[in-house]
UniProtKB/TrEMBL annotation:
<dbReference type="Pfam" id="PF23043">
    <property type="entry name" value="SH3-B_UBE2O"/>
</dbReference>
<dbReference type="Pfam" id="PF00179">
    <property type="entry name" value="UQ_con"/>
</dbReference>
<keyword id="KW-0808">Transferase</keyword>
<keyword id="KW-0833">Ubl conjugation pathway</keyword>
<keyword id="KW-0547">Nucleotide-binding</keyword>
<dbReference type="GO" id="GO:0005524">
    <property type="term" value="F:ATP binding"/>
</dbReference>
<dbReference type="InterPro" id="IPR016135">
    <property type="entry name" value="UBQ-conjugating_enzyme/RWD"/>
</dbReference>
<protein>
    <recommendedName>
        <fullName>E2 ubiquitin-conjugating enzyme</fullName>
        <ecNumber>2.3.2.23</ecNumber>
    </recommendedName>
</protein>
<dbReference type="GO" id="GO:0061631">
    <property type="term" value="F:ubiquitin conjugating enzyme activity"/>
</dbReference>
<keyword id="KW-0067">ATP-binding</keyword>
<feature type="domain" description="UBC core">
    <location>
        <begin position="294"/>
        <end position="454"/>
    </location>
</feature>
<dbReference type="InterPro" id="IPR057733">
    <property type="entry name" value="UBE2O-like_SH3-B"/>
</dbReference>
<dbReference type="InterPro" id="IPR000608">
    <property type="entry name" value="UBC"/>
</dbReference>
Length: 537
């Protein structure tokens, strides 16, 4: 929205103020800020305005505020106030606030946006306009301070006070130096380093007294962090019966005849048994050496189903030395914003499988291109008990299989309208606003999918290197042709389908989407070329 402080997705050091937004075309007018020099976090007045794609911007992690938020001046503006602050009392009453008036101009409450800045009412009663980079949200400061305090406490309890002060000053200097070019939180960390514990107690008491803020952050977090469970060695010792059954299980694994596959190229080989799982996400998981005979038979059954019934667009690799691990690759289906892209998942069968569903990790490359697939690799799906579901949607130890899981990921997650995957959003399907938001989501999903392609080509998962090369060699012409069609106005997922009209009546892709795609396309072509894939933009 207008007045928000944003930063460029591709160049995080570039920040500015949003002056206007065209929601229909997904374009934004931004006044970019110009740094005074490389050693300070303040900015000059020479702002240049530019129209950019909304897909290029994200809210600045430090400079985004909401009305009513309690703030303090940032490190570069508050440094001179610490001496007065550290000598103040911890318990602050309204009567004693007057004695701390020198500091009351450093803590305030956001009233709203005003003239490319923020209107703030200070604890002293004064109201003034400030720039986004001059203040920091108090809650964020407290969170970062708590984190640093816990780290310091657990590092070495025997460090004397003089050494702690030396470390404290060095960390302050380092954090302030980093804050000049980093927009991912170092500024507020630098500010956090400038305060003693007494200072934070003073701040939280002032905020609570004047603005109704709560000061329970420290106690709840610290208490939660100190709860650990201790397991005795005796509990980990296997019984004679367990050892005997383990021996029988290992013999069964040794006797199990691995599938033999006919000679196939990487594109047609759906199922394969390989060795070396060193890059698998769950390689360090334990328990596979102590599994029951029923577990082995169930995995054999899963392998047999995958070998015989895999549909086109799903490719699986299992490991000869680790039956509890599996890696799958799904090909994005036509008609979706994920068309022609590859999606990799690492799967782990727990010792109590199939009574518990497998664990699944998505290779995200740090991108969030679907509501069910997180940047961290977490996969939200009812079959995995990581998403709400009922009936046949949830894991059934008697009937559910890995093939069912993979089909669900391909059909239910990587679908034509992933916007409606979000919890509760299905009720907006078919409604004008919902369909409009779905088109916007698809545009962004395709842009992220293009970025994902470059990530996969640069670092293909082990045992899929040849498949990745052959797949994109085959699909690159279609991918680039679709990009050209989208630049011409076709809707995502419907390239060269001029007759297609969305459910909300939209016929053309947005201007903001086309601006961003035009910037990504040359990079995608370069990535294809570097991988030895012949193509032309």
């Amino acid at each position: 929205m207008a007045g928000d402080w944003a930063c460029h997705r591709l160049r995080c050091q570039r920040t500015g103020i949003v002056t206007s937004v065209d929601a229909l075309e997904r374009t934004v007018k931004v006044k970019w800020a110009v740094s005074v020099d490389s050693d300070t976090v303040s900015y000059g007045d020479g702002l240049t305005e530019e129209t950019v794609s909304a897909y290029e911007l994200v809210l600045h992690p430090d400079f985004s505020f909401f009305t009513g938020e309690v703030i303090i001046r940032s490190a570069v503006n508050i440094e001179n106030s610490e001496a007065n602050l550290t000598n103040g009392t911890v318990a602050v009453s309204r009567e004693s606030l007057d004695t701390s008036s020198a500091f009351l101009s450093c803590i305030g409450n956001v009233l709203g946006y005003n003239d490319e800045g923020l209107e703030v009412q200070w604890a002293s009663g004064a109201i003034s306009r400030v720039q986004h980079f001059e203040i920091i949200a108090l809650d964020r400061i407290l969170d970062d301070s708590l984190e640093s305090m816990i780290e310091e406490h657990t590092t070495d309890d025997l460090v004397d006070m003089a050494e702690q002060e030396k470390m404290h000053l060095e960390d302050t200097k380092s954090a302030l130096e980093e804050s000049a070019g980093d927009c991912t939180g170092s500024l507020r960390k630098a500010t956090a380093f400038l305060f003693s514990k007494t200072a934070f107690n003073f701040l939280t008491n002032v905020a609570s007294s004047l603005f109704g803020a709560h000061d329970s952050t420290f106690s709840s977090s610290v208490n939660a962090d100190s709860q650990y469970q201790i397991v005795t060695t005796a509990e980990l010792q296997p019984s004679a019966e367990d050892i005997s059954e383990e021996k029988q299980t290992m013999e069964l694994i040794t006797q199990f005849e691995k599938p033999t596959l006919a000679s196939e190229n990487a594109m047609t080989k759906g199922f394969d048994v390989v060795t070396d799982c060193s890059d698998h996400h769950f390689v360090k998981e334990i328990g596979h050496e102590n599994v029951k005979r029923g577990w082995v038979k169930k995995i054999q059954q899963e392998w047999s189903i995958l070998q015989n019934d895999l549909p086109d667009g799903i490719h699986v690799r299992v490991y000869e030395e680790r039956m509890d691990l599996l890696r799958a690759c799904l090909v994005g289906a036509a008609g979706t914003p994920y068309h022609d892209n590859l999606f990799f998942f690492d799967i782990f069968f727990p010792p109590d499988y199939p009574h518990e569903p497998p664990s699944v990790h998505y290779h995200s490359g740090g991108l969030r291109l679907n509501p069910n697939l997180y940047e961290s690799g977490k996969v939200c799906l009812s079959l995995l008990k990581t998403w709400a579901g009922t009936g046949s949607e949830v894991w059934d130890p008697e009937n559910s299989t890995v093939l069912q899981l993979l089909l669900s990921l391909q059909a239910l997650v990587l679908n034509e309208k992933p916007y409606f995957n979000e919890a509760g959003y299905d009720k907006f399907m078919g409604k004008a606003d919902g369909e409009k938001n779905s088109i916007t989501y698809n545009e962004n999903a395709f842009l992220l999918s293009c970025k994902s392609m470059t990530y996969i080509l640069h670092k293909p998962p082990k045992h899929f290197e040849n498949f990745v090369k052959e797949h994109f060699t085959c699909c690159a012409p279609h991918i680039l042709d679709a990009c050209k069609a989208y630049l011409g106005g076709d809707l995502v997922g419907h390239a060269r389908d001029s007759a297609y009209i969305s459910d909300d009546g939209c016929k053309n892709s947005s201007t903001g989407f086309k601006i961003m795609l035009a910037k990504l396309l040359p990079k995608l072509v370069t990535t294809f070329s570097e991988a030895g894939i012949p193509c032309s933009p």
